[in-house]
Amino acid sequence: MNPQDFHVTNAGKVIKTPTGYAAFVPAKLPPTLTYDNQLVLALSRADAALSELSGLGRHLPSPHLLIAPYVRREAVLSSRIEGTKASLSDLLIEEMEHPKDRTKDDDVQEVRNYVTAMEHGLDRLEKFPLSLRLVREIHAHLMKGVRGDRATPGEFRRSQNWIGPSGSTIETAPYVPPPPDEMTDLLGDWERFLHERGTFPDLIQCAIMHEQFEAIHPFLDGNGRLGRLLITLFLIQRKRLAQPLLYLSAYIEAHRQDYYDLLQRVRTHGDWIRWIQFFLAGVTEIALEAIGQAGRLMDLREKYRARLRDKAKALTLLDELFLNPYMSVARAERVLKVTNPTARQAVLMLQKKGMLEEITGRTWGKLYLARPIMETIEVNGKNR
Of 205, 220, 223, 232, which residue is most buried, by most CB within 10 angstroms? Predict the structure, then answer.
């Protein structure tokens, strides 16, 4: 890390550690912001889009049918930013299997962990505030049994880490977060800021919260995924989202270099405004996309339900397809709690109605896909 890159003192300070390397200690929160017309307009647009999405979440007839695929798509996209190769199809096919038959693929395990971590955070928020304690709990779920397992899941780091391209060392990395002995006080300050009310608009506070978490980088691994996950949890806790339907990983992946550059520019130049404008633009774009996507999924569900009318078993399987568009006879047996022949009849009914297509070409172990549902779930991530 080059100390000459850090030009202002109000963003934090570069220190030289006893072992000789340079590290950055970010200034405590909150920063001083100047609200110009451009920032106010960006905030107004983001607030309007987020409020529309939250209102949609309150009135969806079956919100759980949207939440599950949204969480899983976010898990895939957020993990992809960190180099994981698993696709949404990989995760959904694996989840469809009986637990004893599931793969041991490390990439799929990382994505599955993200889903578990998000679900744990959402469940805990019902009775417990967003806090350092909850952050550690979520991290423990996120990193359990994967490549970061050696990086003390659920525990803040006790050694130095750094951020840079593959092959970087502590000397060559463009950013070295605060050493552990500086980190504890910064985390306490971050938590206090997390609980502040009435000082900043919620979305601007969320943007600041996220940047400072990434600047502190309190874990040896998993900071990026956890930092992105905290955005949704913060907005849920502040009741700015009625359902967990907003995830920024698709936007961040599409603008990955800008994301990293603007986070770094806060540290090097104290440029909070450009980072916040980027964040607000992401909220606006993703919220509007999520509104359209939710509408398309609900329209598709109503169209399919009209084709099935009073066929109860087929209707039950149909809703399961909105949770996971892949289906097998074995899965249908478990969902319907019926015999194999009865489950097969329900699957074939959906196939006959054009809602499922067989994708393996096998005579045994057939796998079916509700392709229009899958394409609607995936569309925003694939179009970027």
Answer: 232
Buried b / exposed e across 148-165, counting CB within 10 Å, b at 16+?
beebbbeebbeebbbbee
Bridge-based pairing of strands 326-327 and 368-369 is antiparallel
47 contacts 203 by C-beta, under 8 angstroms = yes
Which residues are CB-neighbours of 322 under 8 A, at least 6 positions away?
62, 65, 66, 69, 297, 301, 373
User: Please, what are the averages of pLDDT over each run of 10 residues along the chain (384 residues)?
Assistant: 89 92 95 95 97 84 77 88 86 77 75 92 92 96 77 90 90 94 96 94 98 97 94 95 88 94 96 98 95 90 89 90 93 93 93 93 88 85 45
Cβ(186)–Cβ(28) below 8 Å: yes
Longest dimension (CA), the chain: 74
- CATH dotted code for 309-382: 1.10.10.10
Domain spans of the chain? Answer: 3-292, 309-382
Whether residue 291 contacts residue 51, with contact meaning beta carbons closer than 8 Å, is answered with: no
368 φ, ψ (degrees, to nearest 5): -115, 150
* pTM assigned to the model: 0.91
| Separation CA 350–CA 255 (nearest Å) | 39
